[in-house]
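Input:
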Amino acid sequence: LAKTTQPISMDSYEGQEVNITCSHNNIATNDYITWYQQFPSQGPRFIIQGYKTKVTNEVASLFIPADRKSSTLSLPRVSLSDTAVYYCLVGASSNSGYALNFGKGTSLLVTP
Amino acid sequence: EAQVTQNPRYLITVTGKKLTVTCSQNMNHEYMSWYRQDPGLGLRQIYYSMNVEVTDKGDVPEGYKVSRKEKRNFPLILESPSPNQTSLYFCASSSFGGVTYEQYFGPGTRLTVT
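Output:
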């Protein structure tokens, strides 16, 4: 099961772009990279998923370099409501088993 | 409405008294999973199930049991709860076999064992 490493916390001001990087050196060939967002006392919510290069949706972008040993979640122009914990998840393929490891996540604080 | 439900939402119990937390999903998902969340430790997987009658251990299975007799239900059983199982528990489900593992989470069950 691929282990992930993320910063424990990050701070940002409203309106700025926030980039959260996740390291996953032993990612398996068939593993996808998935990011979740969690607000206090709520279950995590899916944000974005990718395999390689760049993926963009209405909420965020995900950048994955060619070696896939890291990934960066980009949140454009954050607002106060983006204050949450963000989890990087790698795995859930036949190569790495079907257990999922959320880790400790990155606590993002957005201030005015 | 597509959803994952958990019951109860809050539970206070005593050491050793068997309890079951129910989880049900209405999305016909194959994959279901239980997590516990503790301050400073993030979200840790307890057990997961890839389909009916197929379950496997996650990171922290000790002290827990699960069963998957029906596709929609995945109860978490604590045969003899202890205070170190005081935690916030989440159930989740997702479809299986495609490239996406977008998991849908329940609202959580806050368990206190005294």
